[in-house]
Design brief:
52% helix, 116 residues, mainly alpha, Pemi-like Protein 1, Chain: D, two-stranded antiparallel sheet
């Protein structure tokens, strides 16, 4: 088994200790601000997570939430798909949609007509 060594420098490079002022304020260290491109006026989101504080740039949080919403929507679509398939995939509805979309033409080449 190979032993993996972790350098103290690498482990603590993106870590720092900050002090809380009497007003409850902290200062984000300069090296972290530069690394994350945080400037005066940047908006940050503070999240309490199981007794820890997470501080993230607002745009990053929006992106994460958008991705989570997309995953949730996809999950619901996957769960609902079998139930909808029973309702949607039936010959009577297919015939009604064919008449609605294609009229009475027998030479229509839309995907719906080619399935029937």
């Amino acid at each position: 088994m190979t032993q993996m060594l972790i350098s103290k420098f690498e482990l603590t490079e993106e870590m720092d200790i900050v002090h809380v002022s009497s007003k409850g304020q902290i200062v984000i260290p300069e090296k972290i601000r530069k690394l994350l491109k945080i400037k005066e006026g940047s908006k940050l989101v503070l999240v309490l997570d199981q007794g820890s504080i997470i501080l993230a740039k607002e745009k990053d949080v929006e992106r994460i939430l958008d991705e989570a919403e997309r995953r949730e929507t996809l999950g619901w679509m996957i769960l609902a798909s079998p139930a909808f398939r029973e309702v949607w995939d039936n010959p009577i509805d297919e015939e009604v949609w064919k008449k609605y979309l294609c009229g009475d033409e027998t030479s229509c080449c839309c995907p719906l007509c080619s399935r029937i």
